[in-house]
Amino acid sequence: MQRLVATLRTMATVSAAALLPGNAGAWAAEAAKPNVLFIAVDDLNDWTTFLGGYPGVKAPNLDRLARRGTFFTRAYCSAPACNPSRASLLCGIRPSTSGVYFNSNPWRVQMPDAVTLPQHFMAHGYKVHGAGKIFHGGFKDPQSWQVYFDRPGDPVPRARPTNGIPDTTHFDWGPVDVDDDAMGDTRVTDFGVKFLAEEHEKPFFLAVGLFRPHLPWYVPRKYFDQYPVADVVLPDVKEDDLDDVPPLGVKMARPDGDHAKVLRHKQWEKAVQGYLASITYADGQIGRLLRALDDGPHANRTIIVLWADHGWHLGEKLHWRKFTLWEEAGRVPLIFVVPGLTRAETKCERTVSLLDIYPTLADLCRLPVGEHLEGKSLKPLLEDPAAEWDRPVVTTHGRNNHGVRSERWRYIRYRDGSEEFYDHQNDPMEWINLAGDPKAESGKKKLAAWLPKVNAAEGPRKSQTPRPATRRAKQKEVDESRTTGTVR
Predict the structure, then answer these.
(1) Cα separation of 323 and 326, whole Å?
(2) At what angle do helices 82-91 and 357-364 cross, to 10 degrees?
């Protein structure tokens, strides 16, 4: 940790120097620098057409964006929770290095000298504006933005919960009888649309963060109507799926929690409907951003990167939400469109991490790429999607709990040494744990070599400051997290 702090301080000094008057080096190539449109989507798993996660999902703008450049079929988060994933991506540091493992760990406390991705661009002459959910919750880091538009709230149904499940807090879904204009994400997108229509003297880094499909799944009724409950397809689930999973994995899954409630109250189809409706609403906002870029003055010199912070379970492995080391919680959409570099309708099947976004954007925009960054620039794969890339992805959930994903295999090791090992070529649903098979030893050993050598102590926890009306519900979640190992 001391080495990390020293490196971050060095980077902070270098970046700050670029802002000093008379430092012409940071501005010399400004006219040639590309802009960046940085789109974050919360809780979006692989339920897109281009990733094949759900048949019949209506997300035409995501599909159009994927066809426009290069999308990755095996992109994974570094942590299956909002705060550690976003802090890791935006600072370029693994959770196991920083000690930011859960939503309740204030990341600036652990990385006080970190130069975030938007700060790095700001320090090198970029106009940096942000809107919506980029960092998590109460850790929005105002020093990362010259201008930041906070997301307004959403309308909610009059009677809650709408799904009939008691004591669910925000684990709820149902239509709201409003137009798109009433939604917080629409207002966030309005900010981005206006920015993209304007002329800017400097190159810009514009970050737009959409909250949906994060819970609760309250979106206008017209999106629910596109997915009649009778037509909803449920995920493939094996009732005894957890029988060969170690106790710590079962504890993360909590099959007697959300999944049991969903079944008891006969809400599975309606929950899937709510998630799909939320994806389609968010997709509409993505379409508005793309149209604004295409119709404005910056279309030919703007890099687009779209990512989701982690995946989401909807009953797979008897689990709901994120907070696991399995495929559903780890796999995410990741799309790059780079004028003059990426080719249309290109997919890359290499295994990549969200950690790679920071060094990639710095590389593409010809900014310094700090040695402390723990990801790797994806530029070689954007140039040649079939290029050699023997680099598995590590996903971490809590100290000493890691999953390692290669193109074919997933290896999980929990803090007590228990293991899971899955062959995605023959078992894409991760139903058969091969960890106890002697034939798996060499494969496990190969992936275990990628486990982090540093497992920092968890940083302090700080619950989000709730509004008085929700204080009791939020405290219940925090108390529950102390026994489950997760904080929502």
Answers:
(1) 9
(2) 30
- Distance, in Å, from the CA atom of 26 to the CA atom of 24, rounded to the nearest integer, reads 5
Domain membership flag for residue 429: no
pLDDT band at 472; cut points 50, 70, 90: very low
Amino acid present at 11 = M
State both tokens at 119. Answer: 């700060």
Query: CA dist 225 to 219, 231, 235, Å?
Result: 11, 11, 20
Mean predicted confidence (pLDDT) in 228-250: 97
- Give, in order, the Cα–Cα distances in Å from 15 to each of 128, 146, 284, 319, 364: 14, 15, 37, 43, 17
CA–CA distance, 45 with 329 (Å, rounded to integer): 7
Annotated catalytic sites, by residue? 82, 136
Please check whether residue 275 is in contact with residue 320, taking contact to mean a CB–CB distance below 8 angstroms: no
SS3 for 285-328 is HHHHHHHHHHHCCCHHHEEEEEEECCCCEECHHHCEECCCCCHH
Domain count, the chain: 1
Domain range spanning residue 93? 2-12+34-387
> For residues 469-478, b (16+ Cβ closer than 10 Å) or e, as one string?
eeeeebeebb
Q: What is the pTM of this model?
A: 0.90
* Lookup: tokens for 90: 């935006």
Is residue 378 a part of any domain in this protein?
Answer: yes
pLDDT of residue 1: 53
Alpha-carbon torsion (220, 225, 230, 234), positive or negative: negative
Work out the average pLDDT over 130-158.
95
The CATH number of whichever domain residue 149 belongs to comes to: 3.40.720.10
Q: Which residues contact 416 (CB under 8 A, 6 or more apart)?
A: 246, 248
